[in-house]
Amino acid sequence: MTAQFHDLENAHVFITGGGGGIGAALTESFLTQKAKVSFVGRSDYSDFADDMAEKTGTKPFFQQCDVTDTKALHAAMDEAVAKQGALKVQINNAAADTRMDPADITVEDWDNQIAVNLRHYFFACQKAGALMTDGGSIINFSSASYQIAGEQLAPYVSSNAGILGLTRSLARDWGPRAIRVNAISPGLVLTKKQIEEVHTDEDLAEFRKKQCIPENLYPEDVPGTALFLASDLSRMMTGQCLFIDGGLAFTG
């Protein structure tokens, strides 16, 4: 981290899925900017919160929460505002890229995937819009998978295409209130799960050939763009989607 976004100091940032993968990198980066970070996660990330306190000098406010439980998510956001102050930045990041053969997907599978990958985004945005009394920035994490036809990911890809429509619609609705709504679409980011459970060295080598920049992406490659979109440096940017994918979506 070399850039300092001074207007993010003491700004309250709420992150869904902020304890692992890209979300963990986001949490650490905003703490490094001296922001007040609140985050939720389905698993217990108390140890991660303690680690962040030791590493950055500030402990994020963690609440264990299933983002598909809208009442619990809204209650967690209310609690975060009560503890950390007015909401300035909302980052919707929690997702599940579960691979499924389309022939085997049930209605329950579909509904469960849409609930975590799209529905929670809308209701988190809805609550953030109500809590942002003096403008703010909402950042929705999509995925380049919807542009490159990700294999066996029909609900996930559909959700991420929907996130772009949601982002643009809310940008129009909330622009008059100085609430900006943008999206970030990462490519293949090598989180621990991707390395250990999904990809081999051979298929990663093939994937890199599709990118303009033939290098692996890691969680640390993502937060800089989120910091920019959260900062007032991007105050006239809304309804946009920025890709962090080494040029993957550009090349197809």
UniProtKB/TrEMBL annotation:
Protein species of origin: Loktanella salsilacus
GO MF annotation list: oxidoreductase activity, acting on the CH-OH group of donors, NAD or NADP as acceptor
Keyword set, alphabetical order: Oxidoreductase
The protein, known as: NAD(P)-dependent dehydrogenase, short-chain alcohol dehydrogenase family
Pfam families: adh_short_C2 (PF13561)
CDD domains: SDR_c
Record-stated family: Belongs to the short-chain dehydrogenases/reductases (SDR) family.
Top-rank taxon: Bacteria
Keyword Ubl conjugation: no
Ketoreductase domain location: 11-187
